[in-house]
């Protein structure tokens, strides 16, 4: 049973009417949850925290912090609706010091794509930035489907409104991983990636992570955003990060 079949079966158990189920499934976007999953036999897809493996020409002192890396060859890219690279590694960096007070996507983070076969070395942060390093552990992947809610900026708001009563218990059972690839952004204050994209300058969500800031007790929902055409071109230079802080 694939992720879509699992979602369909779970929706039927929650009593979603058949005439609404088809509409809902068109909005249920695939995403890959990456989490520690200790004791699981799910495949290792990446690493959370620790020190990044970077090519010699990529400068990095330790900030923005290294959040996680993903082995694209271990990702079921054909199951997602965004065009991730089929090999190489994606490395995600973000400001984990304190909340950004700049509204909307910022440059307080980046994504580095390291093509397969590229020579890299492990980088340690500077003494000044060492406190922003998260403890490392492997990330295992689980593919699922996730529905938007009333807070998402979705073109088909009527289906979202109708499906909303059936999602309440589903949300309790669904958690973001330490990193998620694809799917919808988490909405705390605003939706950073309305769906579907409507023009070449619109952003789609590449990845999402939740973490606690180092210099403040606030937590953060960070979303790495990219234009679909630049993702297809393997151009990660213009990735933006959206930060939404919460208690």
Automatic annotation (TrEMBL):
InterPro entries for the chain: DUF1963 (IPR015315), YwqG-like_sf (IPR035948)
Annotated Pfam families: DUF1963
Protein name (database record): DUF1963 domain-containing protein
Species for this entry: Streptomyces liliifuscus
């Amino acid at each position: 049973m694939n992720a879509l079949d699992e979602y369909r079966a779970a929706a039927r158990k929650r009593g979603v009417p058949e005439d609404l189920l088809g509409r809902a499934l068109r909005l249920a976007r695939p995403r890959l949850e990456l989490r520690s999953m200790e004791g699981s036999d799910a495949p290792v897809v990446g690493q959370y925290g620790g020190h990044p493996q970077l090519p010699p020409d990529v400068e990095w002192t330790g900030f923005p912090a290294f959040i996680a890396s993903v082995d694209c060859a271990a990702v079921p890219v054909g199951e997602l609706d965004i065009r991730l690279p089929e090999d190489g590694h994606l490395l995600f960096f973000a400001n984990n010091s304190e909340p950004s007070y700049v509204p909307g996507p910022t440059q307080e983070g980046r994504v580095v794509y390291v093509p397969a076969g590229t020579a890299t070395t492990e980088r340690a942060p500077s003494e000044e930035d060492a406190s922003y390093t998260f403890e490392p552990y492997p990330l295992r992947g689980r593919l699922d489907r996730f529905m938007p809610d009333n807070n998402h900026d979705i073109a088909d708001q009527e289906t979202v409104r109708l499906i909303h009563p059936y999602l309440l218990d589903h949300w309790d059972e669904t958690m973001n991983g330490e990193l998620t690839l694809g799917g919808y952004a988490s909405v705390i204050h605003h939706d950073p990636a309305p769906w579907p994209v409507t023009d070449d300058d619109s952003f789609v969500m590449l990845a999402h992570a939740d973490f606690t800031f180092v210099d403040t007790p606030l937590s953060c929902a960070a979303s790495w955003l990219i234009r679909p055409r630049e993702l297809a071109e393997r151009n990660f230079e213009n990735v933006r990060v959206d930060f939404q802080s919460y208690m």
